[in-house]
Design brief:
It is built from 18 helices and 12 strands. By secondary structure, it is an alpha/beta fold.
């Protein structure tokens, strides 16, 4: 049992701090705290909390952990201050109203609208980091549990963004091979990162012809949901609300681009909630973090929407070099080159800001580059504008160091701790039954039933976009 001073400090911390969760290495210790619930006598609760130090420690980490535990159990909603922090009577204090982010409130209102069919889509990097918002290690919340949790708080269906990451690769690899046959323009540059697209349009408009015309996986998913899935389900696309669960704040700006909407159903993506904002969404919908342990994720409860799941190649979109590797896996297979050389995959799986490699394909040595972080991004753009890198065929650019797993909408952790997220992403790729985008049976079905083939007229109408129209 903690001494009286530590007990008092924990009470003050529980009542006065409202910081978001920080990643910890779980180590359980307990303390008893007193709280008054509205119009009820003082009650005593015992809460368990995680600490970076041993249970006997009563330092700053313990205080922070107590705050997290109180938030996790909902105790902070009812905690009160006391004039003298003893076992005497507590003096109630007015609770400050909890601040709810604008987009979270929009989604809460939509979830309460019975006329709307609200669905969610989960980005690979979001899935890896969402566990951290509940004081768990990266990637330890299973995919079926997350899907079941989202359905529990009101989403009618949950879609796997790995699915449209695979779809992106089908279109992007096809586009790359077409440029190889026609002679350019080179280098072709990836278009998944909205912060990079924004930089290109504003600072380097000369490079717009170099951009892949493919929409991002988020925008592709939203388009497929409203133009294909809604019809399959007999739902009016105007009644479908698509919420993107993303690792990136700039995805909010992507969602309102005029190029990514239609007169028939409005914006493809109706709202974006970041990983950091998601805890508030769960809390406000009455979800208790202890529910994760007992949540029924069997059968339909834990299954993705009827579009299907994704491959290991779709999973690695969450890291720097992942889009490049996924595209090269398919390009190499299509050209008969076989698996990527080990020295190429080793280079791609690094998180260094600048990486280059040459991929031997039949009749062509494909020169590729991967650049992540604002400094590397701006430097390579200036070099291309100046006439350098003419020998490059394909370049991946991400605004954030490490890629989407380190996006601005993710919980902040030291750079050296990104390895945990990276390991989680690569583990799921390595364990995937299907690791090549073009071997995803759900994607094959979509082309057979709706899109016809990569680069078709329908595919261009729904999966490709334009740039520079601000």
């Amino acid at each position: 049992m903690m001494n009286t001073l530590a007990h008092q400090q924990c009470l003050r911390a529980v009542h006065t701090q409202t910081h978001g969760p920080t990643r910890t290495t779980p180590q359980l210790c307990t303390t008893t705290v007193r709280a008054r619930q509205p119009e009820q006598p003082v009650v005593t609760r015992t809460v368990a909390f995680a600490s970076r130090r041993a249970a006997s420690s009563c330092g700053e980490d313990v205080l922070r952990a107590a705050v997290r535990a109180a938030r996790n159990t909902g105790l902070n909603k009812h905690a009160t201050t006391t004039s003298a922090l003893t076992d005497g009577a507590a003096k109630p204090a007015a609770a400050k109203p909890k601040k709810i982010e604008k987009d979270v409130q929009i989604v809460l209102d939509l979830l309460n609208d019975p006329t709307k069919v609200v669905v969610a889509q989960i980005a690979p990097a979001y899935f890896v980091a969402i566990a951290e918002m509940f004081d768990m290690e990266p990637g330890t919340l299973s995919r079926t549990k997350l899907v079941a949790g989202l359905k529990k708080i009101g989403f009618k269906q949950v879609f796997d963004l790995r699915y449209t990451a695979d779809l992106t690769i089908m279109e992007e690899a096809s586009e790359l091979m077409a440029r190889v046959e026609s002679g350019g323009p080179f280098p072709m540059i990836t278009s998944c990162c909205p912060a990079w697209i924004k930089t290109c349009e504003k600072k380097f408009p000369e490079l717009i012809p170099h951009l892949s015309s493919c929409k991002s996986p988020m925008s592709m998913c939203s388009s497929v949901i409203k133009n294909y899935w809604a019809k399959q389900e007999g739902i009016d696309a105007k009644d479908v609300v698509v919420v993107g669960l993303m690792p990136c704040t700039v995805k909010k700006q992507e969602a309102v681009r005029p190029q990514l909407s239609s007169e028939e159903h409005g914006a493809d993506t109706d709202a974006v909630i970041t990983t950091n904002e998601s805890r508030t969404l769960f809390d406000e919908r009455g979800f208790d973090p202890t529910d994760w342990a007992t949540l029924d994720d069997a059968g339909d409860a834990g299954e993705f929407g009827s579009l299907g799941g994704g491959s290991g190649a779709g999973q690695i979109f969450g890291k720097t070099g992942g889009v490049m590797e996924a595209a090269l896996r398919t390009a190499a297979a299509w050209t008969g080159a076989g698996p990527l050389p080990e020295e190429v995959t080793k280079e791609l799986r690094s998180i260094e800001p600048v990486r280059k490699a040459t991929v031997p394909l039949p009749g062509l040595d494909l020169n590729i580059g991967v650049f992540c972080g604002a400094k590397a991004m701006n430097a390579v753009c200036k070099e291309i504008v100046a006439g350098e890198h003419k020998d490059m065929h394909f370049i991946e650019i991400m605004n954030c160091e490490g890629g989407c797993m380190n996006g601005p909408g993710q919980p902040r952790i030291p750079k050296e701790e990104l390895a945990g997220r990276l390991d989680s992403i690569m583990f799921r790729d390595e364990k995937a039954t299907v690791r090549l985008s073009h071997e995803n049976e759900a994607i094959k079905k979509l082309y057979k039933d709706f899109l016809e083939e990569p680069g078709s007229h329908t595919a261009h109408e729904l999966l490709h976009t334009r740039y520079g129209e601000l």
